[in-house]
Design goal:
single chain, 494 residues, alpha/beta, FAD/NAD(P)-binding domain, 2 domains, seven-stranded mixed beta sheet, five-stranded parallel beta sheet, globular, binds flavin-adenine dinucleotide
Length: 494
């Protein structure tokens, strides 16, 4: 529990009462929905209807939505240890979330499942009113409660290593706490911020000993940076959070090397976020989707105000703009960093706050088939002035979150794989990554998925329709009679 929360008096009975209300809500809304998908077996093996990879926020809300829709044979697998899904307690290093505390996040229309309900049940309304931003570890506490309150059956320490087509099914190769393979009909990749990509490692660290640098998503021994000179590449949220950690652990100086000339200060997409954007973005023509996302990428998201102040309150923190890193070389016990404009600095440790690249080609789960996935650069040529290599590497998805083939016919099974992670942003907007739009995303995903499952089984559903023979009327509710030659004429009753 975060310091801020543990300082508050916890009302355990309040949380139990909330859970009782949640169960009531579930009853009122008839959750889970009625099962309707015919069971399939292949050589005695029961086929899992849906496998969700990732038991973080997106995976759990997708599960919640699917259970509401009567989809029951679901496996939800995560390679991390229980309670450590997602970045929150591993490499996220901010004190508080950027997202406002009122966001309803993965609550899926249940007021009793919101962060607000969870917080107020334990700490009261006065504490809620006083709360500014959500302390990061507290958000993980909330997600742990969400999992427990809903009994989300996440299977931890299980990694999806490879997806293979198996007729109209998929065979998933697993390792970790469960090894072997499972057969599934549909696969949801709820794999997070780098779920369709990898950390962005610039070429300038190639050949430099890994003991001298780290990406912001790596585990970093900050205590070892005490008394050291630290250089941070970039000034985005993660760059700034890592810088703050280094400063607070006694780094003697921290220099941000920032390629751009000025600090981005306006969070464009957050500012104009609306239900219209959530619902409408995915339906826009390519030109508009590209234009909006390119603009958002180019204007960049600023680091949060609180996180930036957390750095700048230290006199030994420096923000150097217009400083692109050109080369890094080892120089005795230190690193020499060559910066644009013929400048050079010496540092003891380099942290890459360079974010993630979204590019399915960088993921191993698809094996060789990764070359069959259509990307934006295969599907759309932007006008002059709007070129963007990073955006071009995003998968070019169907409107139901499924991957498309680059060449139709080469890997039709990709249409059974749903990209419910940050990688869907270019195609479908902000509904499968950040906290604000995930319930809408889960709803959208589930409707599309249920429609596919239903239409694939249409012959079986048609048979069921014809075979269904449970009467609603038992025959004792009416009596048949002959129609006389004249009835009801001139108001006469026959
Ligand atoms: C440093 C940082 C700070 C952030 N701060 C915010 C914020 O303040 N507000 C906000 O809205 N968003 C924030 N985000 C975005 C954040 O990632 C999402 O809001 C949230 O984590 C998304 O949930 P998710 O379920 O999509 O992904 P995650 O929470 O990352 O969960 C994905 C899960 O997939 C599992 N997984 C991945 N691949 C496999 C595999 N092959 N096999 C098995 N399991 C696998 C992982 O173990 C992980 O637990 C932040 C992201 C980062 C990196």
């Amino acid at each position: 529990m975060a310091d801020e929360s543990s300082a508050l008096p916890i009302d355990g009975a309040g949380l139990m009462a909330l859970e009782t209300r949640l169960r009531e809500n579930q009853e009122y809304l008839c959750w889970p929905g009625k099962a309707w998908i015919p069971e399939r077996k292949v050589d005695g093996e029961t086929v899992t209807d849906v496998a969700i990879i990732g038991g973080g926020m997106c995976g759990m809300v997708a599960w919640m939505a699917m259970r509401a829709a009567g989809i029951e044979r679901i496996r939800i697998l995560d390679r991390s240890a229980e309670g450590f899904e997602g970045p929150w307690l591993t490499y996220a290093r901010m004190e508080t979330l950027r997202s406002p505390k009122q966001l309803t996040g993965p609550s899926f229309g249940y007021g009793t499942l919101t962060f607000q309900a969870w917080f107020r049940a334990q700490f009261g309304t006065e504490a809620w009113n006083k709360l500014d931003k959500i302390p990061r570890p507290m958000w993980m506490d909330y997600l742990r409660w969400y999992r427990k309150a809903l009994s989300v059956p996440v299977e931890n320490n299980v990694s999806l290593d490879l997806i293979e087509p198996a007729g109209d099914l998929l065979r998933l190769h697993l390792s970790g706490a469960q090894s072997g393979t499972i057969l599934v009909r549909k696969l949801i990749m709820a794999t997070g911020r780098d779920g369709t990509g990898v950390p962005n490692i610039p070429a300038f660290v190639k050949g430099v000993s890994k003991s001298r640098w780290a990406h912001s998503s790596d585990p970093i021994d900050f205590a070892a940076l005490k008394g050291k000179r630290v250089t941070v590449v970039g000034v985005g949220a993660s760059a700034v959070d890592n810088s703050a950690e280094a400063l607070e652990h006694g780094a003697v100086e921290v220099r941000h090397l920032i390629r751009r000339a000025e600090m981005p200060t306006i969070n464009k997409l957050m500012g104009v976020g609306s239900f219209g954007f959530t619902a409408g973005y995915g339906e826009l023509p390519d030109e508009w989707r590209w234009r909006i996302m390119n603009y958002s990428f180019v204007t960049q998201t600023p680091s949060p105000r609180g996180s930036t102040l957390r750095v700048s309150r230290h006199k030994n923190a420096h923000f150097h703009f217009g400083c692109g890193v050109e080369k890094v070389e080892e120089a005795g016990d230190a690193l020499r960093v060559h910066v644009s404009g013929g400048r050079e600095i010496e540092t003891d440790f380099l942290i890459l706050g360079t974010g993630f690249i979204t590019d399915p080609m960088a993921r191993s789960e698809f094996g060789d088939a990764v070359n069959d996935i259509a990307l934006w650069r295969d599907a759309y040529r932007p006008p002059q002035g709007e070129e963007n290599r990073d955006l071009g590497s995003f998968p070019y998805l169907n409107t139901d979150f499924t991957f498309r083939e680059k060449v139709p016919g080469n890997a039709p099974w990709l249409a059974n794989v749903y990209c419910f992670n940050y990688g869907a942003t270019a195609s479908l907007g902000k509904v499968s990554g950040d906290i604000p739009g995930v319930s809408e995303g889960a709803d959208w995903l589930t409707k599309a998925l249920a429609a596919r499952l239903y239409s694939e089984d249409i012959a079986r559903h048609w048979n069921d329709l014809q075979a269904y023979d449970t009467p609603e009327l038992l025959g004792d509710e009416w009596a048949a009679s002959d129609l006389p030659k004249t009835a009801g004429l001139a108001g006469k009753v026959a």
